[in-house]
Amino acid sequence: MQVSVETEIAAPPDVVFATMTDVARWPDFIGEVERAELLTDGPVRVGTRFRETRQMFGRSASEEMTVAELELPRRFVLTAESHGTRYIATHEVTPTPKGARLALTFAGTPVTVAARLFSMIGLLFMGSVRRKLEGDLAQVKVEAERRAQA
Fold first, then answer.
1. Per-residue pLDDT at 64
2. CA 73, CA 61: separation in Å to the nearest integer?
3. How far apart are CA 111 and CA 73, in angstroms?
4. Are 47 and 141 a contacting pair, CB within 8 Å?
5. How many CA atoms lie within 13 A of 92 on its CB side?
6. Using an 8 Å Cβ cutoff, are 43 and 22 in contact?
7. Kind of pairing, strands 33-38 and 49-56?
């Protein structure tokens, strides 16, 4: 399963990147994120681990994520493993004439037999996942544009 979404943001790429990587503050500007708890000390960098708790399909769900790649101010990759599936969320920021484009590709690869069987059912939720990701990016856009104006 893979879903890609993107949005144009009227803010400089470095501001968009700083907003996207401000993990500890996600609950302040991404509505469905209830908590983001850093599990490692220091600034966000490769190897940083955190637990995100968000509303998913009407339920509160927590996942532990790891920053796998961080290329300022361009690329931010998160990985997680849950219920027999390996997830990768790749965020890419590219300059545009009016600011930046933020693209997010979310991919899930089943690694257990049970997860492979369930992945067929998961295809039914692709539209919901796309809408949730679009909603997250829309809220990052509002926050990045607010920060750029400040």
1. 97
2. 29
3. 32
4. no
5. 10
6. no
7. antiparallel
Give pLDDT tens digits for 51-86. Answer: 999 987 788 989 999 999 999 999 999 999 987 889
Cβ-contact 74, 17 below 8 angstroms: yes
- CATH number of this structure's domain 2-29+68-149: 3.30.530.20
Residues 21-35: what's their mean pLDDT?
96
CB of 20 within 8 A of CB of 91? yes
Neighbouring residues of 35: CB distance < 8 A, sequence distance ≥ 6: 27, 51, 52, 53, 62
CA-to-CA distance for 41 and 21, rounded, in angstroms? 15
Condensed to tens digits (0 to 9), the pLDDT of residues 96-135 reads 999 999 999 999 877 766 655 666 565 556 678 899 999 9
d(CA 5, CA 126): 12
pLDDT attached to residue 40 = 96
What is the C-alpha separation between 58 and 53, in angstroms, rounded?
Answer: 13
- Tokens, residue 88: 């990768």
Looking up tokens 């049970």 gives 114
C-alpha–C-alpha distance, residues 145 and 150, integer Å: 9
